[in-house]
Structure formats: C-alpha cells, structure tokens
C-alpha cells in the first residue's frame, strides 16, 4: 500500500514543529527575561550543551539514520515482527551504553566543562555553576535517546505526529521551569537556572511516556530483551559508526563555536545561542521536517530498487524547501535587529544584547539554505546505506569551519564564528549535490520553480524595507508590534505574489491518503 505523500507528511511534521518552535520562542523569551545574557545564562547553556551534543551523536542523528533504513528493509522483506526485534535489540544497547556514559560524565564533569568552555577557567563562579547544572541535566541523555528511537519507529509506520509533537512537551516543561526562576534568583546567584535544569529531566520522562503511549496504540513498542547481536543488528551498528561520526561533524562545529566563544567577552555564548534559536525556526520547520518525512520514504524506495522515486522525492523536497527557505533568508538578513528586539528585549536582555545577537543572526541566515539542504540530501545517502559519504563531507566541513573560525573571530568576534559555521553549511550542501548528481540520484526538476520563488522574494524584500522605513519614521510602537507588522506584511506580500505567478509547490496543495500500519 502507498504511504503518505511527501507533502502530507511534511504538513503533519512541519505544522507540529512550527508549534514547537513557537513554544520554543516563548521559552527563550522567558530565558532572556529571567537569565539575560550574562554569566548565569552562559553557565546553563554550556550545561545544556553537553546532553544535547551526546543526544545528537547517539540517537537523533546517527541512530535514526542508521536504524530506520535497516528497519524499513527488514519490514519489507521479513515483516513487522522481525523489524520490531531489531528495534528491541537497538533499544537495549542504547539503554546500557548511554547509562554508562552518564555515569562516566558525572564523575569527570569538571574536566568535560573545561573542555567545552575553557574560557570559564577565568571566572570560577561561572565554572562551578556550569559543572553543577551539567550534573543535573546529563541524565536527560538516555531518556531523550529512547524517545528518538521510538519516534523513528513511529515514523517508519507513517505516524509522524508523535515525534514532531514530543518537543512541545519539552518546551512546556522548560517554560514552567523558567517561570520559577524569579522565586529563587536572589538566593541562588549563578545557580538560578536550577529550576530549568530540573524541568529538563521532567520533560524527558514526559516525552518518554507520550511516545510509549503512541507506540502502544499501534502495537509497536519494542520489548525489553537481553543484549544480543543479530546479523541485522551488526549491519545497523556498522552503519551507525560512520553515521555517528558524520553527525559528529556538525556537533564538532558547534563545539568549536562554544570553545572559541568562551574566550570572548561574557555574553558571547548567549548572543550566539539566541541567534541560533531564531535560525533554527526555519531549519526545524523545513529542513528537519522534510528530512524526517523523506528518510522512511527513500529507505522504502531504495529497498524496493525504485531509483526514479528517489530522484522525484528529492526534487520535490528541494522545491518545497526553496519555497519556504528563500524568503526566510531574506527575512533574517533584513529584519535581524527587529526580530531580536521584538522577541527578547525584556528584563535582563538589553538593547546591546539584541544588537550583538542580530549580527550573529544575519550570518546564520546566510548559511540557512546550506543547513536545510544538508538535512534533506543526507537522507539520500543514509537510505542507500552510504553513511561513509556523509562522514567524509562532514569532516571536510569541520576543517572549513575551524579554518574560518580562526580566521574570522579575531576580526569579527562572535559574528565571525557564526559566519564560519554558515560557510561550512553551504560547502557541505554543495558537495552533496555534486555527489548525488554524479550518482544520477537527484534531478533538476525543481529549478524552474526556484526562479519564480526568487522573484516573489525580491518583491517581498522591497515590501519589508518599505514597512521598516515607515515604522521607523512615522509610527512609534513597541518592538513586538513592529515585528508582527513586518512579518505579517512581508508574508502576505510573498504569499500573494507566489499565488499570482504560480510559485506555490504542488506538494503543499494536494492531499494524500494516509494508511494505517
């Protein structure tokens, strides 16, 4: 039976991801108001980075990309029960391995934090806070890693909503934790982020319960079994190692930014964080959502030896991405300061913080097409059982990012770090396009539509600049209202222009039929 269309799957994932990202903005507004961009915020963000980094290495990136193609192939050849046995095998190894990793990290937390943020050695109070907060947040790793595995199983059965909705639960817990900060701020000093750190653990348990309920409804909960390694499991873990290393490339890039930012003035880590959070909105809604929808689709096509379906799916995904990402880039570049002022200038986050974060946002925005393309195109390599290619591309971009960061940071400070990351993302996307074209696994069917999208974006950009001029010179309203007017007006102009010239991708308009499996 035919599964969900790519457009329908994308709408499911993208709509819930959009809700999650909006909730994330509410969370970050609370962070900005109660933590600001000073030492306490820097300490918490470093503590949060540690479990998130290992999570992306062990589960959300590498495990999903190695597991799902094998799960789809076994399900196609041997049925659902055999696929769930593979899932149970992966699950028990994740639980054992990650619990051991947490124990080791708790013992050597001081050394890990100094590795992540060597500049904290000059501010002992900030260093101690980061160590203590990281010891609270680290147990989140095994919880969210099992959540990611269970979400991949749900995705393989065309139940995309659960995995996309799980981050909403996390953001609700984060917001509740942030609202408790004022109650303890005067007593806790640098440790006033403790409620948010505890909320992270509550979020992991809540997400785990939600995904368990989802899989139970479709009778797809992996059993708890004794550790064993089947032939299918060996194949999956062989793919996991290069996939983990490939996912590690992006994490190394982020780690480099964190290490170097810790050497800059206090606040640089926070400026980069808030800029990255805004850039993550289109990346999450478009790149991650499309990649999530594509992987099971491409895995099934590869397992069934249907190369034309692979080419058509990739072309459709790139067209959908261009429709949403190209105007987003224009918006981030033209409206960076308005975005930061409208979202975050409350309480402890001041105007200078907004200006510094806006500069980083402009740099990240320039790299957004590369980041999104990487999320889409790497699924083609994982589905074809070629994680080694992603690894090689990843290592190349790490080298580009390191060289760019060392060159640009002395000149541009924290903006240089963001710009180097953007350049590395564009380089990765370019390399992947060339490699897929050589394999005849991507077509140029999306190019005519991109021309129309660029035209509509140019008209939108002119409208946005006109709105900004009018607001600056004739109206004096709060920054949040400025942002609503600019985003709403620019978005309306873009939508009308695209509709009038036929630039709306068909995948966003047609309705597909779901299946229950």
Explain what you see.
- The protein has 517 residues and is mainly alpha-helical.
- It has one domain (7-445).
- 82% of the residues lie in helices and 0% in strands.
- The chain has 18 helices and no strands.
- The chain has helices spanning 6-35, 39-60, 62-78, 80-107, 109-116, 124-137, 140-156, 161-179, 181-188, 194-217, 231-261, 268-303, 307-344, 351-383, 387-412, 414-438, 447-473, 479-501.
- Helix 1 runs parallel beside helix 8.
- The radius of gyration is 22 Å and the shape is globular.
- The termini are close together.
- Residues 511-517 have low confidence and may be disordered.
Task: Based on the model shown, name its key terms.
517 residues; 82% helix; mainly alpha
Q: In short, what is this structure?
A:
The chain is built from 18 helices and no strands.
Count of helical stretches: 18
Number of strands: 0
- Largest sheet descriptor: none
Shape: globular
Query: How large is the share of residues in beta strands?
Result: under 5%
- Quaternary state of this entry equals single chain
Topology:
Layout (H helix, E strand, L loop, with lengths): L5 H30 L3 H22 L1 H17 L1 H28 L1 H8 L7 H14 L2 H17 L4 H19 L1 H8 L5 H24 L13 H31 L6 H36 L3 H38 L6 H33 L3 H26 L1 H25 L8 H27 L5 H23 L16
Helix pairs in contact: 1-8, 1-12, 1-13, 2-3, 2-6, 2-7, 2-11, 2-12, 3-4, 3-7, 3-11, 3-12, 4-7, 5-6, 6-10, 7-8, 7-10, 8-10, 11-15, 11-16, 12-13, 12-14, 13-14, 13-17, 13-18, 14-16, 15-16, 17-18
């Amino acid at each position: 039976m035919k599964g969900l269309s790519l457009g329908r799957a994308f709408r499911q994932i993208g709509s819930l991801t959009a809700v999650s990202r909006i909730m994330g903005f509410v969370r970050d507004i609370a962070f900005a108001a109660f933590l600001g961009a000073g030492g306490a915020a820097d300490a918490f963000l470093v503590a949060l980075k540690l479990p998130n980094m290992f999570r992306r290495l062990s589960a959300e990136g590498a495990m999903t990309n190695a597991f799902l193609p094998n799960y789809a192939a076994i399900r196609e050849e041997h049925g659902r029960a055999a696929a769930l046995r593979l899932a149970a095998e992966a699950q028990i190894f994740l639980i054992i391995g990650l619990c051991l990793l947490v124990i080791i990290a708790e013992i050597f937390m001081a050394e890990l934090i100094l590795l992540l943020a060597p500049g904290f050695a000059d501010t002992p109070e900030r260093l101690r806070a980061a160590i203590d907060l990281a010891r609270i947040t680290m147990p989140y790793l095994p919880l969210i890693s099992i959540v990611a595995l269970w979400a991949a199983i749900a995705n393989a059965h065309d139940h995309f909503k659960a995995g996309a909705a799980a981050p909403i639960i996390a953001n609700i817990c984060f917001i509740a934790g942030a609202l408790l900060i004022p109650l303890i701020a005067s007593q806790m000093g640098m440790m006033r982020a403790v409620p948010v750190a505890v909320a992270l653990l509550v979020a992991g348990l809540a997400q785990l319960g939600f995904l368990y309920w989802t899989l139970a409804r479709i009778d797809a909960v992996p059993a708890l079994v004794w550790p064993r390694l089947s032939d299918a499991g060996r194949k999956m873990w062989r793919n996991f190692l290069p996939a983990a290393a490939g996912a590690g490339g992006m994490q190394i890039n982020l780690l480099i930014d964190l290490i170097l930012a810790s050497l800059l003035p206090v606040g640089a880590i926070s400026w980069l964080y808030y800029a990255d959070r805004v850039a993550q909105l289109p990346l999450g809604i478009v790149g991650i959502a499309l990649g999530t929808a594509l992987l099971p689709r491409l895995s099934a096509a590869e397992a069934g030896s249907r190369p034309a379906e692979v080419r058509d799916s990739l072309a459709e995904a790139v067209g959908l991405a261009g429709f949403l990402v190209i105007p987003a880039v224009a918006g981030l570049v033209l409206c960076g300061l308005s975005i930061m002022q409208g979202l975050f200038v409350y309480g402890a986050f001041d105007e200078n913080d907004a200006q510094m974060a806006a500069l980083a946002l402009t740099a990240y925005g320039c790299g957004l097409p590369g980041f999104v393309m990487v999320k889409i195109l790497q699924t083609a390599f994982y589905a074809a059982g070629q994680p080694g290619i992603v690894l090689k591309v990843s290592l190349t971009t790490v080298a580009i990012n390191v060289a760019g960061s060392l060159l640009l940071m002395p000149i541009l400070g924290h903006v240089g770090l963001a710009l180097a990351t953007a350049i590395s993302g564009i380089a990765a996307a370019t390399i992947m396009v060339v490699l897929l074209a050589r394999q005849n696994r991507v077509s140029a069917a999306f190019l005519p539509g991109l021309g129309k999208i660029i035209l509509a974006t140019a008209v939108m950009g002119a409208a946005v600049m006109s709105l900004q001029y009018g607001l600056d010179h004739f109206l004096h309203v709060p920054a949040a209202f400025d942002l609503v007017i600019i985003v709403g007006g620019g978005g309306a102009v873009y939508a009308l222009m695209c509709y009038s010239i036929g630039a709306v991708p068909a995948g966003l308009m047609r309705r597909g039929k779901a299946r229950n499996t």
